[in-house]
Amino acid sequence: MKSKSLPLIIGAVIIIAAAIFFMQGGDKTAKKSGDSSQPIVIPTHNWSSQIVMAYVIGGIFEDMGNNVSYVNADSQAVYESIRIGDVSISHEVWESAFGKSFTTALDKGGLLDWGDHEARTLEDMGYPNWVVEKGLCPGLPDWTALKNPDCAKNFTTPDSPDGKGRMLEGPQTWHGDLIPQRVDALGLGDLWWVKFAGSADALWAELSAAEKEGRGTIIFNWTPNFTDGAGFTFIDFPPYTAGCRPEDGGDGKCGSPDGYLKKAVHEDFPKTHPGAAAAFKKMSFSTSQIGAMAALVDVDKMTHEDAAKKWLADNESVWKAFTK
Ligand code: TMO
User: Fold this and answer.
1) How many CB atoms lie within 10 A of CB 48?
2) 30 contacts 275 by C-beta, under 8 angstroms
3) Is 131 in contact with 215 (CB distance < 8 Å)?
4) How far is the CA of 122 from the centre of ligand 1 (A)?
5) Quick one: what percent of the chain has pLDDT higher than 70?
């Protein structure tokens, strides 16, 4: 009995081993690079380029044989989540909005600076060019034009307290009271009030509503974005200097910095996923590439996932180079 069942057992072991080997066929690259089969956790936030790029990078990691999962995360708290290892990476660390949370996590330990994208960034208040072409606020983009009551009155909306001009800021989760503080610090508080939008989409809806109603509009916006080259101008506030913001002890009388766009990883990521970590270190997107990712959603109205698939299909030579 014993001598008869032994070949059967050996045969079964070989078949199971072969089955496991073939089942892992799709995993070849990851195996070669030594990446764990544990999912790489990629955060999604609430502006289009970031979400599209999450799926673009996830798609690249998957092409390398990795497993990926996505988690919707608060764009400030995410750096602590990366530091403690709940989230693997961040692919859009915008200096103006998130530099402080990023640096805090970096200093505490557990998060690594994984380099900059080629694109530089600006996140600030601005206006569509027709606002100036219609003569609604002569003197823009110099911020001192906002001191003129004849300018402010062209920006009032029915919800404006005391008929003040309205500035539509992004969601408060992006940078707290930065803009209301600045408006007050610059002595503009008697003429202007700052409303927070509930979403990025509300900013784009405001652009078309204001144009239809023939009233001026000032909104928070950023570059790279789909509005690059589409007739949008950022206001020239007094220049940013290190420490000028109230949260850094300054008087708040300053605009936003010419900022970096960084990547970050949890400190164990290069050990658990050396192949993906090396590719992510090389990843660098330009202003026009990031603007295009946003435009696929905000202009062409694609879903974020479909936009990422299209971007990957159209730019294979760009991203394949990161994986080598
Ligand atoms: C972080 N953001 C790009 C919305 O300014």
Assistant:
1) 24
2) yes
3) no
4) 9
5) 90
- The token pair that represents 60 in the structure block: 């690249």
Q: At 33, is the pLDDT very low, low, confident or very high (cuts 50, 70, 90)?
A: confident
Exposure string (b/e) for 229-247, b if CB count within 10 Å is 16 or more?
eeebebbebeebeeebbbe
Distances, alpha carbon 16 to alpha carbons 7, 11, 23, in Å: 14, 9, 10
Structure tokens at 183: 């408006």
Q: Whose CA is nearest to atom 4 of ligand 1?
A: 47
Radius of gyration of the chain (CA): 25
Long-range pairs of 315-322 with CB within 8 A, sequence gap ≥ 24: 315/289, 318/289, 319/56, 319/60, 319/283, 321/282, 322/60, 322/279, 322/280, 322/282, 322/283
Mutate to test the pocket of ligand 1, among 117, 222, 297 (most ligand atoms within 8 A of CB): 222
- Taking the model in full, what pTM does it have? 0.90
